[in-house]
């Protein structure tokens, strides 16, 4: 078992009466990919900002590589790299100029910086565009450069805050593969996302965060045990929107654990889909809705989130 | 310190790669100076209102009629608004006054000028030609040019218009030098001689010289007033953009990213401030250098100019940082900055002469770096030295220091707010 590189203890952040992070405690082990999964506004970015020494916690503390983020932020900053959600680049500069600047900000220089720039450019597939101004790059290329900058100084721990937001599937795939490569190289990654599939694919362990609280933590297998053998039954209709009173009718169906709606769909957590399906269809018929499709899903992170919060992850 | 320089260098490179910024920082001041310079000379440091009340000195050593006619013409009521004349007998004194910028030009009508043009009644011979000498003030090129033009026009009129001829001939008749029966023949000869002298680019009866080529004494002419005014005016644009870049970096995420590197917030702030200061310094320095080459402007004591540029850049940087610390968004910095730039331009006297301000407005104008800078540049252009700049330099440095201190207090609450030290 690896030792933790990051440990948070009752970490809190509030802005006046608004509590953004309500005292979360977790550890990230060396060499693992740890994901913080939660909807927008759950407190993921605030947590990362505190761990990056950008926001001062209003309570609790965290240690990275044995250094307190409150007492020794400079030592912490030497160990970490960040890939922020926004594209924190200088568009008028070339990709190479950006990397030189950020490398020097991390105290690098000379031949080692030049070599590292070439490695990073190759790693993100931008070696052919190294001398082009960033303002001419596509969104995906900018995202990749954003990652390369976070990695330029080979940090022990890298924070990646929603690095695939707003990009095409091809670039997204490339970034996910890159994150796996980082783990293969022995780097520790703290990855935040609201995409359940990304967390499931990448993570050794996942922390589920909602409304500033860490509500579950464990490996994918451990988390799906929360919902036991329960399946997700997703009903899609021709008519929209589904009325609230119509949704309540499904709660009376035997075997249905929870009901929620999202994007015009009704999502049911059920013990055994095949057993409850006939009665569900009868209810649909009684209401007068026209079914477009029915999907039966095995337990996953979304059903865990649904089980724990009563909400779908996209909310 | 390495990080401060690195951040400043990055900003510097970005600024000087931005064509729009370069146009505003460098091209616009030149174009405006050229444009305003081409259309008007209405901003003279001497407190005159452009093409009016041009001070000239007349030295009439000619004992003849034409000299009197020329002097009378410059003193005529019709030209009273354009010229303020001063008759002096001593040629050396006249030149001295020119060097002291008490006049835009000195017109010396030499002894025997009339005799060189009009033939002797008795012998019919003219004396040796003695051209009028015009000494122009090099720091008032436009005003001096006006004097020359009027003089040439006057001589041409003497040639071409019957009035001039009548005046001359009438005077000759009164004095008994000309008999009535000789008038027709004399008039033809007079016109013929003047016409011959005229076809040489300037009237041959006039010799133009500019006084004091080597020593830029006296107060600056309007271009040498306008050029530093424009430079400082557009310096405010540069510092505004610099201040804006701080908030823009905060919004685009590069400022927090810098703070997530092993770099303190003081270093980041220092780098941004240094970038604004150096950019302003380079901008004003370039404008001064190129305007010296392009317009032949003499800015005065080089040491004084350098120190003054540093001081005005520091004061303007203070305003830029203060703006960034008070505003909430980059847009606010730009819009408020543009208004302040315009206000300071007015208070600095590049649109309306400072002399026309009321006393309260003059006092208020001292909040602008432009006003103090113009004091300094005028002093230097007028022959002052670095040691004469104590007041404007002190005021500018104090302004920069006070504004920077206020900005740091505000900025800690605003754009570094939340970021750890």
Helix content of chain A: 25-40%
Q: What kind of assembly state do the chains in view correspond to?
A: heterodimer
The CATH topology annotation of the largest domain in chain A reads as Rossmann fold
Q: What is the distance, rounded to the nearest whole angstrom, between the alpha carbons of the first and last residues of chain A? A: 36 Å
List the keywords.
heterodimer, A: 315 residues, alpha/beta, Rossmann fold, Alpha-Beta Plaits, 2 domains, 6-stranded mixed beta sheet, globular, B: 421 residues, abc type-2 transporter like fold, 5-stranded mixed beta sheet, 16 helices, 5 strands, rod-shaped
What does this structure look like?
The complex is a heterodimer of chains A (315) and B (421). By secondary structure, chain A is α/β, with parallel strands linked by helices. Chain A contains eleven helices and 14 strands. In chain A, strands 6-7-8-3-9-10 form a six-stranded mixed beta sheet, with helices on both faces. In chain A, strands 2-1-4-5 form a four-stranded antiparallel beta sheet, covered by helices on one side. A four-stranded antiparallel beta sheet of chain A has the order 12-13-11-14, sandwiched between helices. In chain A, β1 (4-15) and β2 (18-29) form a beta hairpin. In chain A, α3 (95-105) crosses α4 (110-123). Chain A is globular and about 75 Å long. Chain B has a five-stranded mixed beta sheet with strand order 2-1-3-4-5, with helices on both faces. Chain B starts with a helix and ends in an 8-residue tail after the last helix. The chains are: A alpha/beta (315), B alpha/beta (421). Chains A and B meet through α2 and α3 of A and α1 and α10 of B.
């Amino acid at each position: 078992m690896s030792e933790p590189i990051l440990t948070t203890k009752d970490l809190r952040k509030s802005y006046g009466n608004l509590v953004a992070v309500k005292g979360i405690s977790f550890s990230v082990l060396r060499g693992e990919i740890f994901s913080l999964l939660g909807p927008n506004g759950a407190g993921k970015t605030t947590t990362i900002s505190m761990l990056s020494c950008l926001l001062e916690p209003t309570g609790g503390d965290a240690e990275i590589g044995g250094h307190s983020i409150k007492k020794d932020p400079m030592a912490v900053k030497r160990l970490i790299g960040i890939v922020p959600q926004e594209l924190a680049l200088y568009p008028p500069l070339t990709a190479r100029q950006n990397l030189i600047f950020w490398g020097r900000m991390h105290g690098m220089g000379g031949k080692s910086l030049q070599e590292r720039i070439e490695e990073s450019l190759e790693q993100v597939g931008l070696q052919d565009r190294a001398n082009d101004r960033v303002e001419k790059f596509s969104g995906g290329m900018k995202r990749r450069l954003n990652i390369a900058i976070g990695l330029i100084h080979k940090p022990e721990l890298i924070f990646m805050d929603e690095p695939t937001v707003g990009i095409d599937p091809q670039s997204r795939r490339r970034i996910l593969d890159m994150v796996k490569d980082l783990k293969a190289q022995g780097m520790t990654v703290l990855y935040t996302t609201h995409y359940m599939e990304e967390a499931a694919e990448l993570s050794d362990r996942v922390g589920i965060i909602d409304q500033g609280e860490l509500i579950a933590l464990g490996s994918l297998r451990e988390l799906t045990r929360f919902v036991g053998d329960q399946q997700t039954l997703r009903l899609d209709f021709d008519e929209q929107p589904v009325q609230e009173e119509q949704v309540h009718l499904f709660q009376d169906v035997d075997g249905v654990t929870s009901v929620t709606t999202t994007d015009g769909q009704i999502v049911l957590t059920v013990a055994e889909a095949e057993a409850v399906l006939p009665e569900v269809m009868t209810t649909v018929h009684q209401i007068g809705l026209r079914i477009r499709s029915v999907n039966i899903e095995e337990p996953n992170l979304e059903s865990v989130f649904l089980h724990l919060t009563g909400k779908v992850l996209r909310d | 310190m390495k990080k401060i320089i690195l951040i400043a260098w990055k900003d510097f490179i970005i600024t000087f790669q931005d064509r729009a910024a370069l146009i505003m920082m460098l091209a616009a001041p030149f174009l405006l100076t050229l444009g305003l310079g081409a259309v008007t000379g209405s901003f003279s440091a001497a407190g005159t209102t452009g093409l009016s009340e041009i001070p000239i000195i007349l030295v009439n050593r000619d004992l003849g009629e034409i000299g009197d006619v020329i002097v009378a013409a410059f003193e005529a009521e019709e030209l009273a608004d354009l010229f303020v004349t001063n008759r002096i007998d001593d040629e050396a004194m006249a030149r001295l006054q020119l060097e002291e910028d008490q006049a835009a030009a000195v017109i010396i009508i030499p002894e025997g000028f009339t005799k060189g043009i009009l033939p002797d009644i008795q012998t019919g011979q003219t004396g040796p030609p003695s051209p009028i000498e015009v000494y122009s003030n090099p720091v008032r090129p436009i005003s001096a040019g006006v004097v020359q033009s009027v003089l040439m026009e006057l001589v041409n009129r003497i040639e071409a218009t019957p009035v001039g001829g009548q005046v001359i001939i009438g005077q000759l008749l009164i004095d008994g030098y000309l008999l009535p029966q000789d008038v027709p023949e004399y008039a033809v000869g007079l016109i013929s001689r003047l016409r011959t002298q005229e076809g040489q680019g300037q009237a041959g009866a006039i010799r133009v010289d500019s006084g004091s080529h080597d020593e830029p004494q006296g107060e600056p002419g309007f271009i040498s007033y306008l050029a530093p005014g424009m430079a400082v005016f557009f310096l405010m644009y540069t510092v505004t953009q610099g201040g804006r870049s701080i908030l823009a970096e905060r919004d685009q995420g590069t400022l927090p990213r810098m703070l997530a590197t092993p770099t303190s917030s003081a270093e980041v702030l220092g780098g941004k401030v240094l970038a604004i200061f150096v950019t302003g310094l380079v901008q004003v320095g370039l404008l001064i250098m190129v305007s010296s080459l392009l317009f032949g402007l003499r800015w005065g004591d080089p040491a004084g100019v350098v120190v003054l540029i540093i001081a005005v850049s520091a004061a303007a940087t203070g305003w830029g940082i203060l703006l960034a610390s008070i505003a909430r968004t980059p847009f606010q910095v730009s819009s408020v900055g543009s208004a302040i730039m315009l206000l300071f331009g007015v208070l600095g006297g590049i649109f309306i002469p400072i002399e026309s301000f009321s006393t309260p407005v003059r006092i208020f104008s001292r909040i602008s770096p432009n006003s103090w800078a113009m004091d300094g540049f005028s002093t230097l252009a007028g022959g002052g030295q670095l040691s004469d700049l104590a007041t404007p330099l002190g005021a500018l440095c104090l302004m920069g220091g006070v504004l920077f201190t206020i900005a740091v207090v505000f900025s800690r609450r605003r754009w570094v707010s939340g970021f750890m030290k």
